Amino acid sequence: MATQLSEKTIQTVKSTVPVLAEHGEAITTHFYQRMFADHPELKNIFNMTNQKAGRQPRALANAVYAAAQHIDNLEAILPTVDQIAEKHRSLNVKPEHYPIVGEYLLVAIKEVLGDAATDDIIEAWGEAYGAIADVFIQVEQEKYNKAKEQEGGWLGYRDFTVVKKVKESDVITSFYLEPKDGGIIPPFRPGQYITAQVSLPDSEYTQLRQYSLSDAPGKGYYRISVKREDGSEEQPDGVVSTFLHEQVNEGDILPITAPAGEFYLNEESTNPVVFISGGVGLTPMMSMLNRLVDQDSDRDVYFVHASQNGEVHAFKGDIAQFEEQASSVQSKVVYSDPHPSDADYDKKGHIDLEWLKAVVPYDAEFYFCGPEGFMRTVNAALNDWGVPEGQVHYEFFGPELSLQ
Asked: Which residues participate directly in catalysis (predicted)?
């Protein structure tokens, strides 16, 4: 699968594991700074908000650390490789990008570690990076081929028309997208996402954002539901989402890549399904829920959603309608800061294990998504409950981070 590494290279790379544990994030932060300074065109691919927030350097540091730990058995990190490769395919990362990344990663290791980064270490990491890059390129090529060869599939970006724009709450708006060319679109797995390419006024670089598909497949359109984030020019978290909310209207064009993602509904399981979402984390869950209802599934479905209050709670009416339509569906609502006018919710405060045990079954498939802190809380609760790892599924919005 990958280039065979010498025993000397393997041992040298493994010897750097403790150093990476201590300095990994400093190395990757420096790496991105140097690379973008010399290759600003790569800003067209990378989410610069994640760079400023430190999420991307932290995620890369975790990936490099894992690769060093398992350099003698890269098969062990294939699940991680597969997940990252899905994002890379969705972002149009190409083989020619890998030598650039490798060059600046070695520069960053040398400049951050100084004399501790001996010639032997740099040489070993250069060889190891080549082997790791080969694995990614191979896995990603298979994904590109699959995306292109499926019925209705395509490579790169395809123009879609916004055929409908619907306000779902004070902060979330849905965009219904149909292909401008009038052709068919491939199905997707409920829970997957697309990448949208956005050109902002007065911005030299395009902005790429990945948004979960929020409706079931097979409907002739893709729907994304976008939360408007608060942001500014200095802290541009909300630049793209605000542009979509305020500037993109019905009839406008949005280039997107084919659906991708490793977080999706296990449709082969017959277990009950528990969806646990926080804020806009409910968007992939809505796709899964819509799918189960469309198929008239007899699986019991529990939809647990946490939000600040009713004004920012999206799809509340849709879920209530599903409950009326399908006896197998029931929902619970948690508001952290309800308004006096909010009467229809089940718990004030936050989700905790004691409450969760009382409202959902243990022998279920658990899916959860939301802000990082929310996800850590839910993951810890499920771990404390002893839910088997194979029944726990989650999605990060943005770079993959650790929940531990």
From this structure: 98 (charge relay system), 140 (charge relay system)
